[in-house]
């Protein structure tokens, strides 16, 4: 069991309990380093990476994990500000596994429509960075390790939560430990227990699709570019990795995804190369494949007195533009900023009127992204020749209008702040 700093914090009665130490929960903890709050993070699963190996020089040669995230510039800026990394091209040992991408190339497989975003053309040094989820989590954990106000309990499961709006929440852990907190933060993913105990309703819309993910070696170099192909069957992304490989996310209807999962490696390599129009040539090597059900959903409220939901606990979207973690990171830093400012001004930092500011700041932006991703999926998911014409003309037109391109990348992808 990993338990950091328990000697310095009264774990029976603290200011903030964060349920869930995924990327978003750990970002929230990082945003609270050295703030005037005692914080406990509860996470049930240990990271499946060998920390000793991580410090080993040879680690940079180890095969990348299949779950990766495209982290945008504004999220990177937060991570740099709190010291998780020192720059997008960080020299920290683990950060050697971060792959900065400078271009994004999007095309419609049913026609000639295409659009390219180039960091040089947009006047920025990079569009974002691809990071393995477990490496980002380890970097976030390393950064909170010395913080005297933060305790990380893992593996620890929630056995029960007693939440009454007027009193501090009481959390019972499977180990029997009880913790009282003035603010209970649900960073516990799509099936949030914290959201459930607060009876917060949530919309749920399965796409009836699975995301097939794996890492591949390709004949051509990835050119520090994120590649995205839209097909009526679903989008396919090739995200560049630090070791020259690409991480793929291929969204397919359930039956088609199951077929792809069942193919042997040789047949899968051919199917993948064909689906990607051989943009990166033949597929030379392929790792083990995993699949995830895809859905979108939104909590009707993010906050209650003494309670807040962040990240996937508050909203989840289609991974087609790789924005889920970025939205969650933005939630985490927005909530931290609001409660820190309230505490510093001697205001009621965990009262509903303070937390409501967080909901006002984030819910609209998150809903807009959810609606945009669903609209994109619908527009490109149609096999209709008329729509295909419009899509292709639209993509190519935007590609020739720099001001509009800039606006899209700024607003839809959060690349420029
Ligand atoms: C195929 C795919 C590709 C994606 N690619 C991208 C991308 O490129 N870029 C991007 O920004 N987003 C991407 N996303 C979305 C992104 O992965 C999620 O939005 C993000 O991981 C959500 O983080 P989170 O910390 O909110 O939730 P989670 O990652 O779900 O973390 C929740 C944590 O809470 C813990 N937990 C839950 N319940 C309890 C409990 N009762 N007690 C203790 N601990 C608990 C869990 O163990 C977990 O660690 C992708 C998603 C998918 C499916």
Q: Which secondary structure elements does this structure contain, and how are they paired or packed?
A:
Blueprint: E1 2-4, E2 13-19, H1 23-31, E3 39-42, H2 51-55, E4 68-72, H3 73-81, E5 99-101, E6 103-108, E7 114-118, H4 119-122, E8 128-132, H5 133-144, E9 150-154, E10 158-162, E11 169-173, E12 178-186, H6 193-197, E13 202-218, E14 225-230, E15 236-240, E16 246-253, H7 254-262, H8 265-275, E17 283-286, E18 290-299, E19 303-304, E20 307-309, E21 315-316, H9 324-344, H10 352-380, H11 385-399, H12 402-411
Parallel strand pairs: 2-3, 2-12, 3-9, 6-14, 12-20
Antiparallel strand pairs: 1-9, 4-8, 5-8, 6-7, 10-11, 11-12, 13-16, 13-17, 13-18, 14-15, 15-16, 18-21, 19-20
This protein binds flavin-adenine dinucleotide (FAD).
What would your notes on this structure say?
This protein is of the alpha+beta class. The protein has a domain at 2-57 and 136-203 and 295-375: 3-Layer(bba) Sandwich (FAD/NAD(P)-binding domain). It is 33% helix and 29% strand. It is built from twelve helices and 21 strands. It has helices at 23-31, 51-55, 73-81, 119-122, 133-144, 193-197, 254-262, 265-275, 324-344, 352-380, 385-399, 402-411, and strands at residues 2-4, 13-19, 39-42, 68-72, 99-101, 103-108, 114-118, 128-132, 150-154, 158-162, 169-173, 178-186, 202-218, 225-230, 236-240, 246-253, 283-286, 290-299, 303-304, 307-309, 315-316. The strands form three sheets. Strands 1, 2, 3, 9, 10, 11, 12, 19 and 20 form a nine-stranded mixed beta sheet that branches. Strands 6, 7, 13, 14, 15, 16, 17, 18 and 21 form a nine-stranded mixed beta sheet that branches. A three-stranded antiparallel beta sheet has the order 4-8-5. Helix 1 packs parallel to helix 9. The protein is globular, with a radius of gyration of 22 Å.
